[in-house]
Amino acid sequence: MSFSAVNPATGQTVSTHDPLDDAALEAALAAADEAHRIWRIRTVEERTEPLRALGGLLRERKAGLAARMTTEMGKPITQAIGEAEKCAWVCDYYADHAAEHLASVEVKTDASTSYWAYRPLGVILGIMPWNFPFWQVIRFAVPSITAGNAAMLKHAPSVPGCAQDLEDLFRDAGYPDGLFTNLFIDVDQAGDLIDDPRVRGVSLTGSVGAGKAVAKRAGAALKNCVLELGGSDPSLVLADADVDLAVQACALGRFNNTGQSCIAAKRFIVVDEVRDAFQSKLLSEMQKWQPGDPTHPDTTMGPMARQDLRDTLHDQVQRSVDAGATLVTGGTVPDRPGAWYPPTLLADVTSGMPPYSEELFGPVASILPVADEEEAIRVANDTSFGLGASVYTRDEKRGERIAAQHLDAGNCFVNGIVKSDPRLPFGGTKESGFGRELSPLGIREFTNRKTVWVK
After folding, report:
1. Cα angle at 71 between 77 and 300, to 5 degrees?
2. 345, 400: one domain
3. Shared-domain flag, residues 264 and 371
4. pLDDT at 1 over 90
5. pLDDT confidence of 330, banded at 50, 70, 90?
6. How far is Cα 227 from Cα 206, in angstroms, rounded to an integer?
7. Residue 427 pLDDT > 80
8. Residue 56 has what pLDDT?
9. Are residues 259 and 137 in the same domain?
């Protein structure tokens, strides 16, 4: 298995990294296990000390880190800088709140003292994707390590430079050797790590298929895992919505990061009363999202990350049109090197078409017509996914009722795009996975909730 970075804007290979052999992997695992045993007995306050330095390095090096993201997976440079800054925010958040989140909880019982404590598990394996190559790793690794664990990273093979940059960041921030390790390993080696008793948990962000495979392997080894998988997030635009607001938010939610996000707004479920206005305004708004040189600060959309992903998306668009969807704009593969695809709009999407039931991971928006609120909720929930959902209405109470009570998803937003925030739990339900990242819940995921009773 090769670890090669191919610039998706040009199709040119920019770097290649050698894989680890089994002996080197064993040495890395032994070092991580030893580092954890020392790190786990430090106080939470001692474990948060390097976080400030890590956040500072992310800000100090953001231009170089952003350039790496842009080169390896095509993210527009301005968005890449924003990703580095968001990673620093996570460091700040846990530096400020980890002690509070991990504090023991006292309970009055028949003992003289009784409480439960959050204690680290050991080495945690992170299997991470290419689409947010720094953010996905930082949001798993920072809370895991701050809780007292060690972290080992198997990153996506297409972003090897980002993976190595991450190890350098943790080392330079002052974390002990072995506490965060990047591994250039293949799928079989990752499976062996899950089986190893020194690895006590797995965090995966990826496809449903990968999640099922990891869950099966981790379950057989009785290991805790957190799975953040795919999504086909609905955006419900009701008859009383502010259509201009909805259009701007839906376009941002769909086309940011060239549409390559699990929580991208993928299905626009629009009530008939405002559908024509929404479609017309959306088509106009899409003019702001045009593919261009991802290294230019004004570019809003770059290429997709890989040509095979572009080809899969184009096949989904073609199958949609063949099934009766209306191709409003886009849908043509450009005749140029790289993994380019235009912003595309499909209308009149109904059950049985790919955008209705599949995840379209790229810059393709789909409009699903519905008659009223009741049908909008039914269509929104008529999916195997359950990661995020948004509702657009001028009635905040109505939107809150729908979001809180009726939408079957882990992250429900009213009059705004679905986004992750260090202060709030993040995760899904159904085939979008289980477990939570970020917030107090995220830092407690890979801990032993230990009961202590003394008399």
Report:
1. 30
2. yes
3. yes
4. no
5. very high
6. 8
7. yes
8. 98
9. no
